[in-house]
């Protein structure tokens, strides 16, 4: 047991910066000894300045509560006594400590100089798979339901309880893991090394046995591999009584006719070997509706592949539906998750990285996270980890890229995560993968996905775009500079320097080509020159619009004939030549190293594998440069994207095929005897034509069906359009933003937050967000905006649900995949109909192609795309049967144009109401 005295501190303040005059309004200290709470102290503090409304909303602490509280100097001695001889612990210690230091100094006490531990940093190390390291999320995870989050006494107690959990977890970790962590921890930002040193002393004295599910191999502790029982698929006696089977899986099962109908249709398609496109509205239960008949088919020695667009749905199938299916099939069904190699840890590479002297913070933190993770993971899949951006870069060094020297040379072969995933997939009856891997694998010579008899494509409205992305190319300045930077100079401990050292250690002479510093400098200079020329072209030809910073420029025939494009082509040809020279040199040297593989040390083997991984990526860059400048294809659209504020850094060159229908037909719909395509949004105006035309499926080979949502939208949803907003095309964007801001402020106050606002442009989102912030009318509200407030989509969504009075602004990915059930989301605002900008390169190219064939680009391209997106946005509001709320569409084109009816006919039957703002606000207050 550790005997350190720990003083767990939490404070509430008037703002974020002690040096700018913000002051404490509350402090709490919880003292632990022997990992037990022995003392708790808390006090409000008079800051002698007003508490901002946002802080009052966040903490519940107001000016009245601190009016008669002591000043800090009156309680300073009590604080000092509790801190004396302790380790200062806080959740984000680098926020709390400066405030305490500042107040101590102003009260005449010496600056506190003891050791500190940051429980955020400790959580990152010990909980590497946790989604969020916020205190409230961690306390929920450990069921620490403190009654007043964001008040210091409650938060300090919760942090102390977390610390107890972390120390208990350290006590359970194997000694070898903690010893390796201890060597790394001296480079962390807080004094976790002292905690680990104490723990090592305790463990060495007690010498506990390894937990039964842990084994130590080559000095690294890992979770023991699950026994992979090979099950023999056999004929089963289960009857296809779908309701009874679903009732068996779900104790609270309620019969849904749409789900049963979908099950019968999927079963029929499988039996008759027909393709099937089936739209299943929210609440149908489509995942089980396709998995259940697929499982029956799989049990007859017929392998099934299920592909999804999102990791979230993949994980859901493995974590939830797979378990339910196994209940139904008496655990006779094997379901495996398969991703591309690069998702999996290469343990040999990681093992050797531990021997390197490395002080870079993100690398050290990631190594410690992986050490913890190896005692927990059975998959080695990076998607389980919550890494920093720097940690993601380090992952590129330790990820799997196959083997250059052959898997038999890898001492970890028997524990290799990638081979384990492939073996599971080969033995599984159902394989769950993702669209990107499925599409990439389709064109590989050596397939990773085993032969199968049925393909199910969920979230199928993304399938065409995924094919475009996977079969297209991208070339961007920042990533090119990063990979060139990995080469380093010959005298640096980077790729070229390591290669030179490897050649020297092996005393290789024959066939060796030494890369000079000049050749590496040349490739870097050529990359700079090439993108500088593209920058000039971008500035000259992009249509600059006031108020916007990000633009796209189509590289059409007119651009290709300019002197600027010719200059760029010559520059990239020189770059390509330099890159190929480096490729030949490294490859030649690596081939010579391979001939000496019988005498390579482990470190030399791993170094060879790292260089091999680099060359795989380097060759992809060579292929991309060649595709853009030497081997341009017909039916391909190419464009430049850039942000005027950061050129050439933001420049990227992208190519996409205008049509992928023939390739999709060849790789999927001709080869597969049965493909099931499903999503909540496949139709436009009750027709599958738009969806099917893009996929290249002959209409006589596919059946189509719609299973509507069972939700009663007419009773759960009010759909409104403000009559006092102008038509979006009749005023300037700035005027329009000012008007919608007034509406959003009034509506936000009426809904008390709980509002999601969807935009089609980030510029409009930012301008609206800024106006609302600056209005002074939303100080009681928490405003969160994609691309402005830090955090991923899921993190922003969680934070939105945490606050009572919150408004969330989103664009792009927020139109779908956001799931906020219940009262947390009561009002959805769609600012404008989600048409792609007419100058968006792919849309523009598709439109021109339709025009050439005598068609109507608006009806064939722009309108169907917008309707699918509108339907996705509409679906954000009602996620469960008991949900209710309002949808307000600010874009009056829904009413004033002939095509507005197409949007309305593509969503559930809800009456559209046209009202002025005051009436909308009144209705909101009554409805909610």
Automatic annotation (TrEMBL):
The keyword Disulfide bond does not apply. SMART domains: DEXDc (SM00487), DEXDc2 (SM00488), EXOIII (SM00479), HELICc2 (SM00491). GO terms for biological process: DNA repair; DNA replication. It catalyses: ATP + H2O = ADP + phosphate + H(+). One of its GO terms (molecular function) is ATP hydrolysis activity. SUPFAM superfamilies: P-loop containing nucleoside triphosphate hydrolases, Ribonuclease H-like. It holds the Pfam family RNase_T. Keywords: 4Fe-4S, ATP-binding, DNA damage, DNA repair, Exonuclease, Helicase, Hydrolase, Iron, Iron-sulfur, Metal-binding, Nuclease, Nucleotide-binding, Nucleotidyltransferase, Transferase. ATP binds at residues 280-287. CDD domains: DEDDh (cd06127). Its EC number is 3.1.-.-. Its cofactor is [4Fe-4S] cluster. A motif (DEAH box) lies at residues 458-461. Residues 245-519 form the Helicase ATP-binding domain. It is an enzyme of class 3 (hydrolase). Belongs to the helicase family. DinG subfamily. Type 2 sub-subfamily. 3'-5' exonuclease. HAMAP family: DinG_exonucl (MF_02206). This is 3'-5' exonuclease DinG.
């Amino acid at each position: 047991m550790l005997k350190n005295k720990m003083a767990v501190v939490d404070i509430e303040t008037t703002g974020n910066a002690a040096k700018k005059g913000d002051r404490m309004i509350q402090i709490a200290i919880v003292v632990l000894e022997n990992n037990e709470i022995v003392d708790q102290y808390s006090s409000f503090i008079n800051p002698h300045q007003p508490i901002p409304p946002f802080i009052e909303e966040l903490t519940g602490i107001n000016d009245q509560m601190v009016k008669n509280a002591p000043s800090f100097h009156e309680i300073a001695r009590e604080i000092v006594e509790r801190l004396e001889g302790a380790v200062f612990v806080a959740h984000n210690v680098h926020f709390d400590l400066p405030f305490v230091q500042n107040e101590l100094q102003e009260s005449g006490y010496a600056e506190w100089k003891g050791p500190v531990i940051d429980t955020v940093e400790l959580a990152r190390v010990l909980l590497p798979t946790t989604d969020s390291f916020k205190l409230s999320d961690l306390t929920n995870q450990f069921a620490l339901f403190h009654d007043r989050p964001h008040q210091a006494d409650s938060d300090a107690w919760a942090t102390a309880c977390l610390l107890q959990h972390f120390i208990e977890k350290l006590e359970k970790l194997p000694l070898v893991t903690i010893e390796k962590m201890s060597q790394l921890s001296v480079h962390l930002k807080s004094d976790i090394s002292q905690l680990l040193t104490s723990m090592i002393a305790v463990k060495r004295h007690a010498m506990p046995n390894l937990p039964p599910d842990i084994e130590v191999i080559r000095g690294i502790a890992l979770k023991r591999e699950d026994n992979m029982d090979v099950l023999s698929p056999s004929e089963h006696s289960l009857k296809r009584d779908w309701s009874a089977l679903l009732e068996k899986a779900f104790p609270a099962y309620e019969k849904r006719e749409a789900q049963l109908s979908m099950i019968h249709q999927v079963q029929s398609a499988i039996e008759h070997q027909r393709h099937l496109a089936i739209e299943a509205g929210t609440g149908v239960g489509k995942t089980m509706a396709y998995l259940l008949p697929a499982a029956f088919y799989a049990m007859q020695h017929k392998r099934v592949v299920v592909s999804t667009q999102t990791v979230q749905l993949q994980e859901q199938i493995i974590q939830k539906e797979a378990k339910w299916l196994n209940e139904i099939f008496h655990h006779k069904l094997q379901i495996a998750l398969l991703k591309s190699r690069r998702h999996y840890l290469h343990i040999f590479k990681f093992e050797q990285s531990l021997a390197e002297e490395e002080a870079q913070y993100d690398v050290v933190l990631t190594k410690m996270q992986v050490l913890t993770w190896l005692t927990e993971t059975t998959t080695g899949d990076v998607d389980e980890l919550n890494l920093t951006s720097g940690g993601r870069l380090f992952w590129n060094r330790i990820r799997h890229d196959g083997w250059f020297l052959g898997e038999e040379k890898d001492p970890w072969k028997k524990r290799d995560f990638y081979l384990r995933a492939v073996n599971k997939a080969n033995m599984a009856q159902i394989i769950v993968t993702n669209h990107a891997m499925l599409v990439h694998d389709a064109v590989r010579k050596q397939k990773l996905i085993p032969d199968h008899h049925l393909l199910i494509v969920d979230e199928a409205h993304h399938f065409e775009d995924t094919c475009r992305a996977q079969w297209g190319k991208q070339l961007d300045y920042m990533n090119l500079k990063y990979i060139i930077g990995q080469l380093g100079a010959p005298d640096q401990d980077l790729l070229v320097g390591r290669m030179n050292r490897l050649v020297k250690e092996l005393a290789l002479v024959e066939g060796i080509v030494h890369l000079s510093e000049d050749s590496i400098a040349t490739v870097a200079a050529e990359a700079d020159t090439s993108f500088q020329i593209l920058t000039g072209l971008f500035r000259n030809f992009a249509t600059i619009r006031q108020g916007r910073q990000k633009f796209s420029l189509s590289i059409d025939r007119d651009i290709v004939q300019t002197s600027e494009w010719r200059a760029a082509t010559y520059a990239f040809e020189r770059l390509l030549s330099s890159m190929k020279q480096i490729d030949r040199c490294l490859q030649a040297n690596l081939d010579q190293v391979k001939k000496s593989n019988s005498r390579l040390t482990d470190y030399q083997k791993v170094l060879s594998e790292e260089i091999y991984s680099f060359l795989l990526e380097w060759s992809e860059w060579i292929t991309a440069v060649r595709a853009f400048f030497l081997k341009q294809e017909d039916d391909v659209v190419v464009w430049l994207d850039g942000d005027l504020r950061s050129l050439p850094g933001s420049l990227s060159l992208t190519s996409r095929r205008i049509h992928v229908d023939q390739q999709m037909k060849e790789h999927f719909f001709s080869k597969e005897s049965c493909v099931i395509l499903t999503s909540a949004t496949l139709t436009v105006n009750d027709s599958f034509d738009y969806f099917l035309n893009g996929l290249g499926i002959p209409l006589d080979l596919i059946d189509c069906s719609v299973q509507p949502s069972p939700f009663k939208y007419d009773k759960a949803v009010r759909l409104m359009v403000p009559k006092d907003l102008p038509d979006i095309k009749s005023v300037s964007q700035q005027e329009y933003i000012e008007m919608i801001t007034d509406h959003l402020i009034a509506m936000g106050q009426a809904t008390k937050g709980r509002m999601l606002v969807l935009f089609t442009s980030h510029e409009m989102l930012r301008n609206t967000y800024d106006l609302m912030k600056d209005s002074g009318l939303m100080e009681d509200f928490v405003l969160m905006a994609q691309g402005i407030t830090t955090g991923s989509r899921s993190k922003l969504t969680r934070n939105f649900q945490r606050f009572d009075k919150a408004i969330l602004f989103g664009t792009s990915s927020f139109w779908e995949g956001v799931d906020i059930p219940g009262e947390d989301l009561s009002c959805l605002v769609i600012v404008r109909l989600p048409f792609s900008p007419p100058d968006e390169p792919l849309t523009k190219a598709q439109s021109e192609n339709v025009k050439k064939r005598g068609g109507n680009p608006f009806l064939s391209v722009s309108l169907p795309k917008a309707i699918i997106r509108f339907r996705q946005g509409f679906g954000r509001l009602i996620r469960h049967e008991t949900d209710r709320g309002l949808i307000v569409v600010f874009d009056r084109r829904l009413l004033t144009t002939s095509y507005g009816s197409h949007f309305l006919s593509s969503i559930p039957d809800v009456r559209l109401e046209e009202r002025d703002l005051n009436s909308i606000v009144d209705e909101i207050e009554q409805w909610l």
